[in-house]
């Protein structure tokens, strides 16, 4: 078995960062998220490989917050469109957890299947190597296992690292992973080490049967109660590793401009606002319901798994204290037989 | 996964077309005929499919392709309702536009073969239906009797008047019924709303497919009338409209339940609609 000694971690990151843009979990001021290792400031930044979880997920590596799609010129009646998108440099996301890796698998389903392939996403995804960090000690808000994610065996990983005390066990899972193994060369050693056992989860979400049960709960009064305090601020969608809704907008000056896409949120009323004033999800409760149904029912119906991987970020970030674990459990326990 | 180069087949990047003709249909609907630069159509469509039209730098909007004339042009009929459509109504012949597609499932033209067809439309709702109506005329032997019931607020608001009054009534085994909401001078045709007129005409359900498109209230009452008249949920087809951005089932916003209207719709049978959460 191959191991990476923790004492050689920085050296290894420097090595990996030579041939690729390397993203690692860092705490930076008030924020934490995945930042380029090349921007690491010893002293002020802190490497957060042990955190469960850093506040922002690594989704922007494969799906940036804003992305130019193409540029154009429009001169009188004439229009010219220039494809400006270039495949990004090879990238590595180092140290993301099983929940975030599973969320990228959800993105793969959305952007790469069902008729159309999203070329922008595909280009980034193809050039991204995933080094996932197996979890053995679930954090205070983690509930991935309940959502069908095995924290000890991250899906979609090109390499899995496992914390075995003084060392990380290094396990390559794909040809992209082999390239990293080769790049690290003698920094990796051949040694036996044992991963610990998985400790119990503190959050208990009972998602079993919930997708099915929700089919009959679209008009259930429970939504009124669950959504009561939601401010539809959209923070939950921003911090969520699996939320992918986007808007398409134009920026122009004179005869030139470009079209770009950017994160959007189903929590905002403009999201579905139509000309003439009609809005199918005009009120907060309707938007709240759609978000949770999308995560817990609709995505399962379409892609065979929920669109929540149990990372717990929205629980931490929500200013109104809305907790998806409680929502799942409330739905699970709701007695719908009395409400015809 | 393989090494990826910039892909010119990118479904989110429009191709360029030129407006070769513009026609006023009503005070707020114009027809736009577009063709690829140097000829040809940007893509082939089936009746009921959609195109995302880009007027740069103003905006992008989803429209039913009201007809594809061979490899000559695509026809969109666009109602002025907001920012982009206002600007669209100002452009002139020769203007270049971006367009991407075709999107959506389109009408089930194959499954309807051998049936009598009942088309019911209100206002701009005739734009999507028209592609199916004209398809039936083009493949006349494949379809039985054709009945078209169409209404709008006033005579001026009726789209495609030449076809409605001159061309379509001449087609074999075809009846065209037209109504306007309120009486007006010079109009000696039917007056009243579409659902009431439909019940008056009372086309028998047997062997028939009804295709309905129009404003939400009209659709609602027409569906009720059809049900009263004995049409089953499988015999009734309608289209849904949601706000759209990507058109390819990715951006998230056009869902009703787990269906994306841009990809799985916009055409559904009433049986399918009844499976969806009542958000339409
Ligand atoms: C499947 C489908 C088929 C359609 N077919 C036609 C047609 O054949 N002819 C026609 O005139 N109109 C059609 N529409 C409606 C048309 O897309 C909108 O009316 C138009 O985009 C409004 O644009 P606006 O920018 O002028 O309005 P604004 O109010 O300025 O719109 C602002 C934004 O909302 C979006 N938007 C507003 N209303 C709608 C809407 N009803 N549907 C989707 N997006 C909307 C616009 O694209 C724009 O991004 C269709 C819509 C759909 C979904
Ligand atoms: S973060 Fe909380 S308050 Fe804000 S939209 Fe999400 S659930 Fe609602
Ligand atoms: S919904 Fe909340 S817990 Fe689930 S993946 Fe998104 S941020 Fe994490
Ligand atoms: S318009 Fe983007 S998903 Fe339908």
Key attributes of the depicted protein:
heterodimer; A: 340 residues; alpha+beta; 29% helix; globular; B: 280 residues; alpha/beta; Elongation Factor Tu (Ef-tu), domain 3; Rossmann fold; seven-stranded mixed beta sheet; six-stranded antiparallel barrel; 15 strands; 33% strand; binds iron/sulfur cluster; binds FE2/S2 (inorganic) cluster
Number of strands of chain B: 15
Oligomer: heterodimer
Number of helices of chain B: 6
- Morphology call of chain B: globular
Beta fraction of chain B: 25-35%
Distance between the termini of chain B: 39 Å
Succession of helices and strands of chain A = EHEEEHEEEHHEEEHEHHHEEHHH
What Rg of chain A is obtained from the alpha carbons, in whole angstroms?
Answer: 22 Å
CATH architecture of the largest domain in chain B, by name, is 3-Layer(aba) Sandwich
Strand order of the largest sheet of chain B: 10-9-8-7-11-12-15
Largest sheet of chain A, in brief, is: 9 strands, mixed
Radius of gyration of chain B from CA coordinates: 19 Å
Describe the sheet with the most strands of chain B: 7 strands, mixed
Number of helices of chain A: 11
- Decide which structural class fits the backbone of chain B: alpha/beta
Helix share bin of chain A: 25-40%
Q: How would you describe the overall organization of this protein?
A:
The complex is a heterodimer of chains A (340) and B (280). The longest helix of chain A has 20 residues, at 284-303. The model of chain A has no long low-confidence stretch (mean pLDDT 95). Chain A has helices at 9-19, 59-62, 98-112, 119-126, 175-184, 210-214, 222-227, 235-239, 284-303, 313-317, 324-333; strands at 2-5, 21-28, 31-36, 46-47, 66-75, 78-82, 91-96, 128-133, 159-164, 167-172, 188-190, 246-253, 256-263. In chain A, 29% of the residues lie in helices and 23% in strands. Chain B folds into two domains: 15-103, Translation factors (Elongation Factor Tu (Ef-tu), domain 3), CATH 2.40.30.10; 116-239, Rossmann fold (3-Layer(aba) Sandwich). In chain B, strand 3 (50-55) and strand 4 (59-69) form a beta hairpin. In chain B, helix 4 runs parallel beside helix 5. Residues 1-8 of chain B have low confidence and may be disordered. Chains A and B meet through strand 5, strand 6, helix 4, strand 12 and strand 13 of A and strand 6 and strand 13 of B. The structure holds flavin-adenine dinucleotide, iron/sulfur cluster (2 copies) and FE2/S2 (inorganic) cluster.
């Amino acid at each position: 078995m191959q191991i990476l000694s923790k004492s050689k971690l920085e050296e290894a990151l420097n090595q990996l960062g030579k041939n690729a843009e390397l993203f690692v979990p860092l705490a930076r001021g008030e924020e934490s998220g995945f930042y380029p290792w090349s921007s690491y400031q010893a002293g002020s930044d802190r490497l957060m490989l042990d955190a469960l979880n850093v506040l922002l997920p690594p989704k922007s590596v494969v799906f940036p917050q804003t992305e130019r799609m193409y540029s154009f010129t429009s001169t009188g009646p004439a229009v010219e469109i220039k494809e400006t998108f270039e495949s990004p440099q090879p990238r590595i996301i180092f140290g993301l957890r099983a929940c975030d890796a599973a969320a990228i698998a959800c993105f793969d389903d959305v952007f790469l299947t069902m008729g159309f392939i999203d070329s922008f996403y595909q280009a980034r995804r193809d050039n991204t190597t995933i080094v996932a960090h197996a979890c053995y000690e679930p954090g205070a808000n983690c509930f991935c296992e309940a959502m069908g994610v095995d924290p000890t065996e991250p899906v979609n990983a090109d390499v899995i690292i496992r914390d075995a005390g003084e060392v990380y066990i290094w396990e390559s899972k794909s040809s992209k992973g082999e390239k990293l193994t080769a790049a690290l060369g003698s920094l990796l050693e051949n040694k036996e080490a044992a991963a610990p056992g998985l400790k119990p989860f503190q959050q208990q979400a009972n998602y079993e049967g919930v997708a099915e049960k929700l089919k009959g709960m679209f008009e259930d009064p429970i939504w009124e109660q669950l959504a009561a305090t939601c401010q539809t601020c959209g923070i939950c969608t921003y911090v969520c590793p699996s939320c992918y809704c986007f808007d398409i907008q134009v920026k122009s000056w004179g005869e030139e401009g470009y079209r770009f896409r950017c994160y959007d949120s189903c929590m905002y009323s403009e999201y579905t606002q139509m000309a003439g004033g009609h809005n199918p999800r005009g009120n907060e409760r309707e938007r709240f319901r759609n978000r949770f149904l999308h995560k817990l029912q609709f995505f399962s119906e379409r892609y065979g798994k929920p669109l929540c991987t149990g990372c717990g970020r929205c629980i931490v970030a929500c200013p109104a204290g809305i907790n998806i674990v409680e929502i799942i459990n409330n739905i699970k326990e709701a007695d719908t037989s009395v409400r015809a | 996964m393989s090494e990826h180069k910039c892909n010119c087949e990118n479904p989110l990047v429009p191709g360029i077309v030129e407006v070769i003709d513009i026609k006023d249909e009503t005070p707020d609907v114009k027809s736009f005929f577009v063709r690829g630069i140097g000829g040809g159509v940007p893509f082939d469509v089936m009746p009921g499919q959609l195109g995302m039209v880009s007027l740069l730098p103003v905006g992008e909007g989803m429209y039913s392709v009201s007809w594809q004339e061979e490899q000559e042009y695509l026809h969109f009929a666009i109602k002025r309702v907001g920012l982009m459509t206002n600007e669209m109504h100002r452009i002139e012949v020769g203007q270049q536009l971006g367009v991407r597609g075709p999107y959506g499932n389109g009408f089930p033209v194959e499954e309807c073969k051998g049936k009598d067809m009942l088309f019911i439309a209100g206002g701009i709702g005739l734009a999507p239906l028209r592609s199916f109506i004209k398809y039936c005329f083009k493949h006349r032997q494949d379809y039985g009797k054709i009945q078209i019931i169409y209404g709008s607020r006033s005579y001026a608001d009726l789209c495609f008047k030449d076809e409605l009054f001159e061309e379509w009534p001449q087609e074999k085994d075809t009846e065209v019924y037209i109504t306007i909401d309120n009486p007006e001078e010079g109009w000696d045709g039917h007056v009243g709303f579409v659902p009431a007129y439909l019940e008056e005409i009372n086309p028998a359900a047997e062997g028939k497919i009804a295709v309905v498109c129009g404003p939400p209230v009209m659709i609602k009452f027409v569906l009720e009338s059809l049900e009263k008249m004995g049409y089953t949920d499988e015999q009734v087809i309608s289209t849904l409209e949601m706000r759209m951005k990507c058109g390819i089932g990715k951006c998230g916003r056009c869902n009703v339940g787990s269906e994306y209207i841009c990809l799985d719709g916009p055409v559904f049978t009433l049986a399918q609609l009844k499976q969806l959460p009542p958000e339409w």
